[in-house]
Amino acid sequence: MFKPVNVAILGATGAVGTELLELLESRNFPLNNLKLLASSRSAGTHLKFKGESIKVEAVDEKAFDDVDLVLASAGGSTSKAWAQTIVDSGAVMVDNSSAFRMNPDVPLIVPEINPEAAANHQGIIANPNCTTILMAVAIYPLHQVQPIERIVVSTYQSASGAGARAMEEVKIQSQAILKGEDPKAEILPYPLAFNLFPHNSPLTETGYCEEEMKMVNETRKIFNTPHLKITATCVRVPVLRAHSEAINLEFKAPFSVAQAREIIAQSPGVQLLEDWQKNYFPMPIDASGKDDVLVGRIRQDISDPNGLELWICGDQIRKGAALNAVQIAELLMEKSLLNIAKSSLKV
Amino acid sequence: MFKPVNVAILGATGAVGTELLELLESRNFPLNNLKLLASSRSAGTHLKFKGESIKVEAVDEKAFDDVDLVLASAGGSTSKAWAQTIVDSGAVMVDNSSAFRMNPDVPLIVPEINPEAAANHQGIIANPNCTTILMAVAIYPLHQVQPIERIVVSTYQSASGAGARAMEEVKIQSQAILKGEDPKAEILPYPLAFNLFPHNSPLTETGYCEEEMKMVNETRKIFNTPHLKITATCVRVPVLRAHSEAINLEFKAPFSVAQAREIIAQSPGVQLLEDWQKNYFPMPIDASGKDDVLVGRIRQDISDPNGLELWICGDQIRKGAALNAVQIAELLMEKSLLNIAKSSLKV
Question: Which segments constitute the Semialdehyde dehydrogenase NAD-binding domain (chains A, B) (predicted)?
């Protein structure tokens, strides 16, 4: 259908990198060549793709010369270090880090919401923060019908959001506590097993942590609503995978629960999951490994006639990161936005 | 200081009962006689109190004849079954169940907030729901300075809120998952280890579960603000003990963070715990076994000039249940409200 392209995954050995590989394979992405890149520390290892073993190469100045598309998931500093090289080489970078998300020259895209923003890219497209993507994809269909005025969100974020090593640490801590020993915290700042704490990203001058400010600023950029009122409380919980969010929405006018359910049931990227008889609503174990964000417990806010309460769970490695990046890549193929004239973007 | 009284604990062998015993001892409650009561199933066991072993007796019609004060923590149906007998015997019942909380003839008391309500009791005083007590004691000092208009709260409730057996189940489930086995859910409706789910109390016609409606209705009754706007999302998380809550408060007018901190630091029943340099705020492991509700991360709500965000953790077995009940009992002693004329209350 599309002319196969040369793709590089930068940060191929990480949790999101592994998921990117799996998605390129399962979605049968039209690849001509796949290059796996990582730091020199991880270079030399081999990863499986469609039955073949591909050697992970160390990233260098020449690594992007024959590449059309870079899927970057090696963290902000790596993205910053290589972005100019990638752009100058004529490749398009879909960046999973926070490095360029708020750059006005960089579109920030959730394909179900603002695919049109891709048309203006100058070589870099940013993939939003995981918590933001999960909320945005769940509430945007409602926002289209009736504008949202204010969002109050509390998150329940799994250990895997802090990487595979944090996930492992929670398991080791759990073992220790079950044996009556003291848990050790080395990756995360405090013990997370059988405990929880406010999100450990750096605090900003507002008193909100960076994770919370991402939810505020990135949602505004994706929705193109610079003044949308949003407040967030982000919390790490001892769940291994998939994030949950309690979302309070205030609309301009009343929004019926029945209509909200109908809209969610028909919208892309989300799945309505409610069994009111069984008191069964989305749980992290349901969302793990799933593409869709699970939405349930849609309630009329009894404190506000214009309010709705939503409960969502989503796999933050999948839709919250790798899947959204691959969907952006697919969008670039569909709209023929990969082979652009050499960009003059300076980052 | 006070004339020692005859106290009975109804439900002495449960998690709250055990905590009640510990508190009567550590607070040196002026006891003449202590009677431990439980169902016939638990009768016959012995519990330690001040070095002595006390036999648990089966509750019967004559059990309250020589009792001044009953601390009841055996669940709603047991409280309902014995309340009339207790009242008719002339004893005062401090009831930890939800059975009589919303009864207009029954005061619902958090001693730091509405001790004056005790004066009108007719033989029964209700102890509020744990999640409600923890929130109420933390926000009331602010409400006194500047009335709260609306509350949006999300909870992170530990397994112990569902009893000692639920706590044990989470440990067993964790073991199973760490061994690669499937977790079994017998006490709680779904596996809680490394997972979470909306609170499993029965759903009401509003779509809110009973736990959430308790937070709404009980807070209104304790604050004596029948129209206070409150919306709540209650969630069970795989924490062993102590509940956490993300509380968004909307006031009539702006409330400075500095003033809020000062007020919390000086108020009874709460402790300000914030280290902004270390990104350290209350955690369940800090709150476990503590009397005070820990309050931190007080932030100006960036979505509302009249808003504040609060993060609290509290031991729901202690201040959320047993301690609050003992404080009510102490209040009854102080105000000489134990030896009332025979009540005509019919429940």
Answer: 6-121
Strands A52-58 and A46-49: antiparallel
Q: Is the ipTM of this complex over 0.90?
A: yes
For residue B22, the enclosing domain spans 5-127+322-334
Residues in CB range of B287: below 8 A, 6 or more apart: B242, B244, B293, B294, B313, B314, B315
Average of pLDDT values for A230-235? 98
Q: Does B155 lie in the same domain as B13? A: no
A239 and A269: one domain? yes
Q: For chain B, which residues score pLDDT lower than 70?
A: 1, 340-341
Over residues A309-325, the mean pLDDT reads 97
A340 found inside a domain: no
Quick one: pLDDT at residue B341? 66
- Please tell me whether residues B205 and B303 are part of one structural domain: yes
The verdict on residue B206 lying in a domain is yes
pLDDT of residue B162: 84
Find where tokens 């002495």 sit: B12
CATH number of the domain enclosing B175: 3.30.360.10
Could you give the CA distance from residue A5 to residue A7 in angstroms, rounded to a whole number?
A: 6
Q: What is the pLDDT of residue A341?
A: 66
Residues 6+ apart with CB under 8 A from A222: A108, A109, A110, A113, A114, A128, A132, A136
Is B130 among the residues known to form the active site? yes
Question: What sections of chain B are H helices per DSSP?
Answer: 15-26, 76-88, 130-145, 164-178, 210-223, 257-266, 284-287, 323-334
Q: What is the pLDDT of residues B38-71, one digit of tens each?
A: 998 989 999 999 999 999 999 999 999 999 999 9
Task: Please check whether residue B342 lies inside any domain of the structure.
Answer: no
DSSP state of A319: I
Q: Do B299 and A246 touch (CB under 8 A)?
A: no
| A197 and A92 co-located in one domain | no
CB B57 within 8 A of CB B63: yes
Residue ranges in A33-147 assigned as alpha helix (H): 76-88, 130-145
Is A309 near chain B, with CB under 8 Å? Answer: yes
Residue among B178, B281, B301 whose CB faces A171 most closely: B178
Give the pLDDT confidence score for residue B163 in this predicted structure.
83
**pLDDT for B12:** 94
A129/A215 Cα distance (integer angstroms): 7
Q: What is the mean pLDDT of residues A298-321?
A: 97
Question: In terms of domains, do A146 and A262 share one?
Answer: yes
Mean of pLDDT over chain A: 96
Cα B174 to its chain centre, rounded Å, is 27
Beta-carbon separation of A196 and B239 below 8 A = yes
At A164, the pLDDT band (50, 70, 90 cuts) reads: confident
Query: Which among A196, A206, A311 has CB closest to B156?
Result: A196
Q: How far apart are CA A209 and CA A230, in angstroms?
A: 14
Does residue B183 sit in the same domain as residue B280? yes
Q: Indicate which residue of B121, B130, B234, B313 is catalytic.
A: B130
Residue pair A296/B197 in contact by the 8 Å Cβ criterion: no
**Does A127 lie at the interface with B, CB-CB under 8 angstroms?**
no
Using alpha carbons, select from A335, A277, A346, A280 the residue that is nearest to residue A313: A280
Q: What is the CATH number of the domain that holds B328?
A: 3.40.50.720
B114–chain A Cβ distance below 8 A for any pair = no
- In the predicted structure, residue A139 carries a pLDDT above the cut 70: yes
Query: How many separate domains does chain B show?
Result: 2
Is the same domain home to A75 and A103? Answer: yes
Report CA-CA distances (Å) from B76 to A333, B27, B97: 62, 27, 5
**Residue B175: partners with Cβ closer than 8 Å, 6 or more residues away:** A178
Residue B73 domain flag: yes
